[in-house]
Amino acid sequence: MNDTTMRAISPASWGGPEVLTAVTLERPVPGPTEILVRVHAAGVNPVDWKTRATGGFGMHGEPPVLGYDVSGVVAAVGLGVTLYRPGDEVFGMPEFPRQAGGYAEYVTGPARHFVPKPEGLGHVEAAALPLAGLTAWQSLVETAGVSAGHRVLVHAAAGGVGHLAVQIAAARGAYVIGTAREDKHALLKELGADEVIDYTRQDFVEALEGREVDVVLDSIGGDYGTRSLRVLRDGGTLVTLPSPDEVPPADESGHRGIRTGFTLVEPDSTGMRAIAGLAAAGKLRPVVETVLPLERAADAHRLGETGRTRGKIVLTVLDS
Length: 320
Hints:
The protein is α/β, with parallel strands linked by helices. It has two domains: 156 residues, Alpha-Beta Complex (Quinone Oxidoreductase, Chain A, domain 1), CATH 3.90.180; 131 residues, 3-Layer(aba) Sandwich (Rossmann fold). Helices cover 24% and strands 27% of the residues. Strands 3, 4, 5, 6, 7, 14 and 15 form a seven-stranded mixed beta sheet that branches. The chain has a six-stranded parallel beta sheet with strand order 10-9-8-11-12-13. The longest helix has 14 residues. It starts with a strand and ends with a strand.
């Protein structure tokens, strides 16, 4: 390895985790308004293994490099950049939905797709936040307008998006209800959930009979969206994350004034700064269940695809 190349992980073809291969690539150069970041840690998200399996969308480069979430140190700045200088610690989700190439030693992206890393977070924790944290923030705060007194139901509450959504809703003063297996209830209560329903033992619709919620965040799909309409108040909001196909038909919700829709996260420095502020204030803590070196990206994908992890999986690229 020399000062013009870098290590990265690329799918040799589209398929299972075994297609992920270590490669040596030319180090990217920041263009105008971009920064070059020396990556210390890269977050792993469901979109990563979905892209690996089928090619997804937004892939570019030859060979393509997976990964969106990164935390690291600015190595160089492009023409016109005034926000950062070499040596600054930053984290972000550059380029989404185009592939950022986070599973690599270096990443380039628009300077305003990054924000300063809170001093209280290490790079591993910071890398766990951008995509999942922005998804939760944009869904709950910007789309649903969650505020004090609202009742919010978060499905898959112990997952990557879910455990951050619980904390964001709680920080907004909402009453938070989560669905999760019993062994994750203590963690969710610690993170701010007021109530947790074990979906393996009780239907959440039955558990909430006679009570109505203002907002539902559905990261599961299937029949969860349609069933969630039964616990929403008239005029409530259902935010669907898996795909547009998972949004219940309008004729099932429109007559009650319920807002439904698919939310796709997008880079946003305002939202990122809000998330960083919550983390700095101790109100948002990313739970990182597993940390693996970059070369074990395939193992990270195998673990993530079980759907049983708490919080996030993170790859270390450079010792922090």
